[in-house]
UniProtKB/TrEMBL annotation:
GO terms for biological process: non-motile cilium assembly. It comes from the Eukaryota. One of its GO terms (cellular component) is BBSome. Residues 96-117 are annotated as: Disordered. TPR repeats lie at residues 301-334, 338-371. PANTHER family: TETRATRICOPEPTIDE REPEAT PROTEIN 8. The keyword Ribonucleoprotein does not apply. The keyword Cytoplasm does not apply. Keywords: TPR repeat. This is Tetratricopeptide repeat domain 8. PROSITE patterns: TPR. It comes from Takifugu rubripes (Japanese pufferfish). It holds the Pfam family TPR_8.
Length: 456
């Protein structure tokens, strides 16, 4: 006697195994026979939603770093990890919140921290018991991306629940946030917390404060959440990110260490701690952290780029070029290629192969014509060849592209002083001092120029 599986049960099995397209196809066949099967409708909408779902906590994060902080300046023999040009301290870890870090496929989303597979679990063990209102809202909000109708549905559901259902208030807050009504979103999230202490609500509310450029308020909120949920990884990560965006790297590292105490496979924490060791002249220790990521199965351009730099500065030259070769093979954008060639150029400078360095910096500019650091370093190499005008043009370009960097201003000041243009030299030195007030060479140059002007 042949035993057949109930189609709805099979569809639910596919859903639990995250074979979402097969789940949706079976539900479609069920609905062709019985268009009024609510369980099939519910399960199909959930499957379609999960295909495109990304946790709202991690998307569209635009905090103080993008608006206030600039990318760490880079010396003539710079050590630049691959990262975005957005101003966030460069760690080599691309967060889900950044544009390049958003999952492009469901497989990538599953591997990304706090996305569809890790946000909110399925509400029951059977599709027949899922709340239809919840399913419908998520379908409209995520799959159809219709925020207005989602907002109307959440408002009606909140009113129907007599304003006592924390979940619907959170959904209202998400809608308001997506519409840019941050104060309204804040009210809804605060109200939801008064009804129920939930980790996600703290994350959503902190996201609002970051968008409002209130990092201290966000920090206090995260710490308040830790009082209710001690050791919660997502809250500790949120605190670490804010400290990192505020350029308080030591505090950020301490919180990332706390994250690893709770979850020793946390990719972001490992990458950021490794980056901190690298920038504090401990490349050997940084190398251990990045090798740990390799052991965990992380395999991308950024990781091999960082490994190449660590190997070079740890004097493990046999692994340096092979790591950069893999980084180039795994690169997926022109910006990534530019950063890798830029770092290979620094390796060439380190081994005194200036011809190779010149070619590498040129390649970096070929892939990214706005690469200010490459312009700066090319200017230095051009000056070594005696091409003063070309060097000056490169330095002016670098200074205009990245006014926050002190190196182009300082180099331009030195160059102008050598050719006798003291006024331009003084102006450039002042800009270098504004970018890096503690730079001793700039202060000495300014002192010499002031003495010279006083003598005139």
């Amino acid at each position: 006697m042949e035993v057949t599986i109930d189609p709805l049960f099979l569809a639910w099995s596919y859903f639990r195994r995250r074979k979402l397209q097969q789940c949706a196809d079976i539900c479609t066949k069920i609905l062709q026979d019985n268009p009024y099967d609510q369980a099939a409708w519910s399960l199909k909408t959930r499957a379609l939603t999960e295909m495109v779902y990304i946790d709202e906590v991690e998307v569209d994060q635009e905090g103080i770093a993008e608006m206030m902080l600039d990318e760490s300046s880079i010396a003539q023999v710079a050590r630049k990890f691959h990262g975005t040009q957005s101003g966030r301290p460069i760690t080599g870890f691309v967060r889900p919140s950044t544009q390049s870090g958003r999952p492009g496929t469901m497989e990538q989303a599953i591997k990304t921290p706090r996305t569809a597979s890790t946000a909110r679990p399925v509400t029951s063990a059977s599709g027949r018991f899922i709340r239809l209102g919840t399913t419908l809202f998520e379908y409209i909000f995520h799959h159809e991306n219709d925020v207005k109708n989602a907002l109307d549905l959440a408002a009606q559901a909140t009113e129907h629940a007599q304003f006592k259902d924390w979940w619907w208030k959170v959904q209202l807050g998400k809608c308001y946030y997506r519409l840019g009504l941050y104060r309204e979103a804040e009210k809804q999230f605060r109200s939801a917390l008064n009804h129920q202490e939930i980790v996600d609500t703290y994350l959503y509310l902190a996201k609002v404060y970051q968008r409002l450029d209130q990092p201290i308020t966000a920090l206090n909120l995260f710490k308040q959440g830790l009082d209710h949920f001690p050791g919660e990884v997502t809250l500790l990560t949120g605190i670490a990110r804010i400290h990192e965006e505020m350029n308080n790297i030591s505090s950020a590292t301490e919180y990332y260490r706390d994250v690893l105490k709770q979850d020793n496979t946390h990719v972001e924490a490992i990458a950021c701690i490794g980056s901190n060791h690298f920038y504090t002249d401990q490349p050997e220790i940084a190398l251990r952290f990045y090798r740990r990521l390799l052991q965990m199965g992380v395999y991308n351009c950024q990781l091999y780029n960082n490994l190449g730099l660590c190997c070079f500065y740890a004097q493990q030259y046999d692994m340096t070029l092979s790591s950069f070769e893999r980084a180039l093979a795994l690169s997926t954008s022109d910006e990534e290629q530019a950063d890798v060639w830029y770092n290979i150029g620094h390796v060439a400078v380190g081994i005194a192969d200036l011809t190779l360095a010149y070619q590498c910096f040129k390649l970096a500019l070929a892939f990214n014509n706005d690469h200010a650091e490459a312009y700066n370093n090319l200017a230095v190499l051009e000056l070594r060849k005696g091409r003063v005008e070309q060097s000056k043009a490169f330095l002016q370009t670098a200074a205009s592209l990245a006014s926050h960097m002190y190196e182009p201003h300082f180099n331009l000041s030195i160059l102008s002083e050598k050719i006798g243009d003291l006024q331009s030299s003084y102006t450039a030195a002042q800009k270098a001092e504004d970018a890096f007030p503690e730079h001793v060479d700039t202060q000495q140059l300014l002192k010499q120029l002031r003495v010279h002007f006083a003598a005139i």
